Amino acid sequence: MQDSMKACVAEAVGTFFLVFIGAGSICLDAFTGGRVGLLGIAVAAGLALSVAVSATLALSGGHLNPAVTFGFMVTGRMDRRTGLSYMVAQLIGAAVGGFFLRILFDENVWQARALGTPDLHPTVKFGNGTFIEAVLTFLLVFVFWATVVDERAPKIAGFGIGLTLGASILMGGALTGASLNPARTFGPAMASGHWNNHLAYWIGPLLGAAAAALLYNGVLLRRR
């Protein structure tokens, strides 16, 4: 199997892992009548991302997020063809994760939370929600570059990234769901048919990721 195909398989499996555990914890919260709670959801998603990034780092770079891949594309570190193939693999993995959850949970359970599809709180306007997703994704991608891309980084694999996601959910989960990842939103949305405010979860993360990647690559990264 060619390295490019291996990388795409890794991206699909890793994104499946993130969606199945992250969105699954939200479905479990509905199943248990709220016993998991926001803290439990944040821990589940953060740990899932930590392990998934660590497991796929050597194979694909551990992107598992179209926003992360987009940051590599806008900085010229990844060509368009490879970047798009990564994104397709991520979306496929996320969709499989969403449909697996639909099979696993009873309809009344998964419909109550739309299979864990992120959505804006009724009091949060589209523009504000997009801005929150952009800021939180900026922080996530900044940490990705600081701990994975930068050769000076401490060798902590994906755990800094996972901790950032967990912290972001604690801050923004009640407002936007703190997706920070178009694939994380797309997978459960595809399986549940819940597309409310879907564009916010593309526009915000892509803009935030591009800003973080351009800042780190253009200003903070050590030049050889």
Quick gist of this model?
The chain is an all-alpha fold. The protein contains nine helices and no strands.
Fold and architecture overview:
By secondary structure, this protein is mainly alpha-helical. 75% of the residues lie in helices and 0% in strands. Helix 1 packs antiparallel against helix 2, helix 2 crosses helix 7 and helix 3 runs antiparallel to helix 4. It is globular.
- Taking all Cα atoms into account, the compactness measure Rg is 16 Å
Low-pLDDT segments, ≥5 res: none
CATH superfamily: Glycerol uptake facilitator protein
Helix and strand succession?
HHHHHHHHH
Span of the ends, CA to CA: 33 Å
Strand proportion, as a percent range, falls in under 5%
Task: Assign the CATH architecture.
Answer: Up-down Bundle
The biggest sheet amounts to: none
Overall domain count: 1
Number of strands: 0
Helix content: over 70%
Mean pLDDT: 96
Large-scale geometry: globular
Helix/strand-derived class? mainly alpha
Number of helices: 9
Provide the CATH top-level class. Answer: Mainly Alpha
Look up the CATH topology.
Glycerol uptake facilitator protein
Could you name the key traits of this structure?
single chain; Glycerol uptake facilitator protein; mainly alpha; 9 helices
Protein topology:
Layout: H1 3-31, H2 37-60, H3 66-74, H4 80-104, H5 107-112, H6 126-149, H7 159-176, H8 182-192, H9 200-220
Helix pairs in contact: 1-2, 1-4, 1-8, 2-7, 3-4, 3-9, 4-8, 6-7, 6-9
